[in-house]
Amino acid sequence: MGNKRRRPMNTRRHGRLGVATVVAALALAACGRAPAPQEPVRAVKLVTVGQGALEARHEYAAEVRARIESRLGFRVAGKIVRRAVEPGQRVRAGQLLAELDARDYQLAADGARAQVASALAQRDLAAADLGRYESLRAQGFISHAELERRGAQLKAAQSTLQQAQAQLSSQGNQAAYTRLLADADGVVTGIEAEVDQVVAAGTPVVRLAQDGPRDAVFAVPEDRVAALRLGQPVALRAWSGDARLTGQVREIAASADPVTRTFAVKVALAGAAPPLGATLTAVPQAEGAPAAPVLKLPTTALRQEGQGSAVWVYEPASGSVRSQAVQVAGADGNQAVIAAGLTPGMRVVASGVHVLAPGQKVTVYQPKTGSVGVEQATAATQNVANSAAASAASSAAAGAR
Questions:
Q1: Is 254 helix (H, G, I), strand (E, B) or coil?
Q2: Does the pTM of the predicted model rise above 0.90?
Q3: Residue 352 is assigned to a structural domain of this protein
Q4: Are 216 and 239 in contact (CB under 8 A)?
Q5: Whose CA is closest to 114, among 161, 66, 62?
Q6: Do the domain assignments include residue 47?
Q7: Is residue 273 located within the same domain as residue 326?
Q8: How confident is the model over 225-241, as pLDDT tens digits?
Q9: Element (H, E) at 186
Q10: 3-state DSSP call for residue 176?
Q11: Within this chain, do residues 160 and 112 fall inside the same structural domain, yes or no?
Q12: pLDDT at 33
């Protein structure tokens, strides 16, 4: 009897343990396998791929320069003792710019002058001797050969005199060359030598921009010089104001600058030109047929994928996006020019491209306009007013009862 009573208790215990075990196993299974979070459906802005003309223009910074800018220097060597002008000063033709120490050249001129006096005396003596010998020859006291000898001496003395006079003229010029004078009216644009400096003949001392035509000079890289032609119109705009100028390409450098590796282009300015050294914006004008249309996208639509660029193309049928590799040909302002990979009519994600994944579901962002907001606010106000009127009517009916 005692054994039969204990059996039901053991059976209940085993049953309870089994139920507890199953519950614990289910709880552990629920904790260990959490469901993966679903990718959020993002709203994206789309742009339709279309063709358009290139609007970007190549602009260059140009400087106003004189058509003729001379580097003036002394024609003789010497020590500079005076500089009579300053940079930016206007000068007239013949005005003194600088001066050398001329004492040695003056001494040389004095020596040449003395040689002229000596040669003149020798010539006069030879002429007098010839006159006397002609008289003696007429009387038959001397031979004809002796007379010819005296004539030759006179010719030699005359030649010596001419040589001395030429030497005096040369020495006089050398002394005059110690004064550097302006060749034409203009503006001093630079000083390249100072007082007490010893310079050689021909060394530039003063830079002078002569009055007359003005040029706008700018540099272009090697890949753009082929697009410029002589006579091509150029639009110019002053940096310091809204002044508009026009000009034509007058000269294109035949070789690149050895330092910058750019080509200098000179544009002849038409009309009144800005002051020397003023900065202009030069825009060469295109000529001929318009350029072929190109595909353009906002730069925010591009992303880096591998070694190239790619965009997200929207698939309307599935409401998802797919990656499409593109080839970028260049930039046109704030837009990228697409050379390959897209066709007109495609819809491309315009922003937020770095948070998307291939095949991700998206919704097209619809901007809210101001009229919609006003209508919604009006409807909400009417609903509130109607609710208030209904509440007031209900309260009046209850009071009448």
A1: coil
A2: no
A3: yes
A4: no
A5: 161
A6: no
A7: no
A8: 988 999 999 999 988 77
A9: strand 186-191
A10: helix
A11: yes
A12: 56
Closest by CA to 355, choosing from 40, 114, 10, is 40
Same domain, 340 and 317: yes
Query: What is the identity of the amino acid at 140?
Result: G
Q: What DSSP string runs through 20-75? A: HHHHHHHHHHHHH-PPPPPPP-EEE-EEE-EEE-------EEEEEEES-EEEEE-S
Residue-wise pLDDT tens digits, 251-302: 999 999 999 999 999 999 988 888 888 999 999 987 554 566 788 888 888 8
**Residue at 117 is within a domain:** yes
Q: Which of 310, 230, 305, 227 is nearest to 60 (CA)?
A: 227
Between CA 227 and CA 240 the distance in angstroms is 28
Structural domain of 300: 294-364
Q: Enumerate residues 6+ apart whose C-beta is below 8 A from 169.
A: none
Is residue 241 domain-shared with residue 264, that is, in the same domain? Answer: yes
Q: CA gyration radius for the chain? A: 50
Contacts of 93 (CB under 8 A, 6+ apart): 182, 183, 184, 185
What CATH number is attached to the domain comprising 254? 2.40.30.170
Kindly give the pairing relationship between strand 42-44 and strand 362-364: parallel
Domain membership of residue 345 (yes or no) is yes
Q: Are 141 and 165 contacting, i.e. CB atoms less than 8 angstroms apart?
A: no
The answer to whether residues 262 and 217 belong to one domain is: yes
Token pair recorded at residue 309: 């660029």
Domain count, the chain: 3
Distance CA 187, CA 319 (A): 72
How many angstroms separate the CA atoms of 63 and 133, rounded? 77
Least confident of 38-42, 108-112, 353-357, 396-400: 396-400
